Amino acid sequence: MPFTLSHPAAVLPLHKLLGRRSSISAMAIGSMAPDFAYFLPGIHGLMTHSLAGILIFCLPAGLLAYFIFHLLIKRPACLLLPEFLLSRLRGQVFGAGTLPSVSIWVLACSVMLGAATHIAWDALTHRNSAVVNHVDLLRSVVFTVDGSQVYLYKLLQHLSTALGLLVLAWWVQSWLTQPATPADSDLLKDTNQLEPPASLKVYIAGGIFIASALCCAAAGFLHWGFSLERWLFHVTVAGISGFVLALLCYCTAWTAWTATAGAGQRGY
């Protein structure tokens, strides 16, 4: 499969086309939702990568992930960023309400549209997809490496993964070149009070990446002897899982701390 984190690249032109009739964060989450099955026990990836799976799994899972991101992850994760990024996001993340002002209908459609782009992308690069099974060209051998045949669909899989990451990198670079909107003094004061000290930010971020690395190492050891492709799959899934779980632990602790601090300031 194309790398999960490459999939949001497919929704960028759609959001540009639809504008306010779509939610970029909901579409990005929806574009990754079919792969959530690989991180959850008891859910089969074939189901989540189907048209029925868009409604049965991707829509509810995507909406849940959307609300978790905006209500729990967004603000504390933003505070771990370097100042040149935090200064650009401070007004957008902390200046408005916790949830974007978007109707549930727009959210649902955005999640499903994002999931549809994922399934369409995988249909051209997945071994047993309906498109690959019916298009002989996609199953043609492009070249051979150490006796192993590399098919066109597999080559497209890796090339499209790289292209997706490049598109996302270009999008971030374009965003960085745009003039930043400075946050007002009151907002700057409030976020400075919430921000962990610089040294603590380094330890927190380091701990999150160490947790991810340890999960990668454990998965690599447990799946040693598998084919390279399967081994990389398990290592990647474990690494992303460790990163997300560690990030959630930090975000939960930060949310609890700010709630307690706020209650103390109000005299509760």
UniProtKB/TrEMBL annotation:
InterPro entries, sorted: DUF4184
Leader peptide range in chain numbering: none
TM stretches of this protein: 24-44, 50-73, 93-121, 155-172, 202-225, 231-257
Superkingdom field: Bacteria
Keyword terms of this UniProt record: Membrane, Transmembrane, Transmembrane helix
Protein name from the UniProt record: DUF4184 family protein
Highest classification ranks of the organism: Bacteria, Pseudomonadati, Pseudomonadota, Betaproteobacteria, Burkholderiales
